[in-house]
Amino acid sequence: MENNYLESDWIVAEENPKYSNDFLEDKDLPYKIIGICMDVHRTLGRGFREVVYKDAIELELKWKNISFEREKRYTIDYKGNTLPHSYNADFVVENQIILEVKAQVGIIEDHYSQVINYLAVSKCPLALIVNFSGKSLEYKRIILT
After folding, report:
1. Which pTM does this prediction carry?
2. CATH tag for 1-16+48-133 (out of 3.90.320.10, 3.60.15.10, 3.40.50.300, 3.30.750.200)
3. 114 FRET partner, CA 20 to 30 A, in 50, 56, 98, 144?
4. Which residues contact 93 (CB under 8 A, 6 or more apart)?
């Protein structure tokens, strides 16, 4: 997946302590989402397909009364025209956070590119990539600067 952003345009937030959650309405929301994902990982373990983890996350978000949209479709405008291809974000939580779910070995560069494009079209300030394939949950916070 190609993106129009340079590495200097985005940041893995937890690796840079100056980036907090101050730009969010609910500063604790990323921690709540990570906590949900940790609980799902602790309960289900590793080895399932992504859709199974998404189903469990959806239940947890509902049970905790956290608003979200699953598989939210974003169209892309090009000079006033809607392009035929679009992006589908796994989850958009509280209209602020893109949650991208993975169940494969490691978080790779393509995953960063994917969420950077989601951030650009959604105008959400933060994306979380969570990966369920490891012994422990792996996650990254991504912010466009």
Report:
1. 0.83
2. 3.90.320.10
3. 56
4. 29, 33, 61, 66, 67, 68, 99
